[in-house]
Specification:
Layout: H1 28-32, H2 34-40, H3 43-72, H4 93-104, H5 119-147, E1 157-159, E2 164-168, E3 171-180, E4 186-200, E5 206-214, E6 224-225, E7 231-236, E8 256-266, E9 272-280
Antiparallel strand pairs: 1-3, 2-3, 3-7, 4-5, 4-6, 4-8, 8-9
Helix pairs in contact: 2-5, 3-4, 3-5
């Protein structure tokens, strides 16, 4: 019966948490940390924002350049050699837009040049240069962080499909295997395991999805791994184990999950990564 009904997992088999945040009223908290919010967005939205930010800034400053030329009367003296415009060869909004792009990206083709007879243009040039540098630092930094995220590193870190309970060195142990498929190693790798199971306290309080630590060698140092070859991770089922009071006949009927967290640094990039593995339901 248990295999026929649909099981709502806390963590899916691919290691992704099956938790959805709903009814979040204080959405402004996402904007207070806008950098992390942008990094967490999907690639299609991230690229869209990247393009829109640059396009909007170019259009905004292009409009200001065009307004300065229009207010000064440069548009009425386009072919007048005796007139000194604010920006040479600026004859419309399109050319003002192109000059805005050239200024912010420091291309400098040399065809459109600001003159020294336009103090408001010089001030605008300074403002656009500074703001353009800030936009570049923010957006390029955001894209760099998103590209260098080690999420795909988890694809080459594999856990055994099933965990087993058997005797090892005369002790009853829960065991599973973890291995790395890449030649570049996970530096300072450490492993933890959690038992996800609802419980009821002695006071009658019901705690859904209660998390209990599963000792996989914390006190002996066996939780710190040298992951150059597949390793067998063992948890001794003793009186301190959360499985001590669960019998063999009772175990298939229990509503529980075992989640394994492997943490370390990617050798190639130095980025810290955390990989979730799902072993039991």
């Amino acid at each position: 019966d248990r295999t026929k009904r649909k099981i709502q997992r806390y963590v899916r088999k691919d290691g992704k948490c099956n938790v959805h945040h709903g009814n979040v009223r204080e959405t402004y908290r996402y904007l207070t940390d806008i950098f992390t919010t942008l990094v967490d967005l999907k690639w299609r939205f991230n690229l869209l924002i990247f393009v829109m930010v640059y396009t909007v800034t170019w259009l905004f400053f292009g409009m200001i350049w065009w307004l300065i030329a229009y207010i000064r009367g440069d548009m009425d003296h386009i072919e007048d050699p005796s007139w000194t415009p604010c920006v040479t060869n600026l004859n419309g909004f399109v050319s003002a837009f192109l000059f805005s792009i050239e200024t912010e990206t420091t291309i400098g083709y040399g065809y459109r040049v600001i003159t020294d007879k336009c103090p408001e243009g010089i001030i605008l040039l300074l403002i656009q240069s500074v703001l353009g540098s800030i936009v570049n630092a923010f957006m390029v930094g955001c894209m760099f962080v998103k590209i260098s995220q080690p999420k795909k590193r988890a694809e080459t870190l594999v856990f055994s499909t099933h965990a087993v309970i058997s005797m090892r060195d005369g002790k009853l142990c829960l065991m599973f295997r973890v291995g790395d498929l890449r030649n570049s190693h996970i530096v300072e790798a450490s492993i933890r395991a959690k038992l996800i199971k609802s419980k009821q306290t002695s006071e009658g309080e019901f705690i859904p999805l209660n998390q209990t630590d599963i000792n996989v060698g914390y006190y002996t140092g066996d939780d710190r791994l040298f992951l150059v070859s597949p390793l067998i991770i063992s948890h001794e089922i003793n009186q301190q184990s959360p499985f001590w009071e669960i019998s063999k006949a009772q175990l298939p009927k229990e509503e529980l999950e075992i989640v394994v967290i492997l943490e370390g640094m990617v050798e190639a990039t130095g980025k810290a990564c955390s990989i979730l593995g799902y072993l039991w339901d």
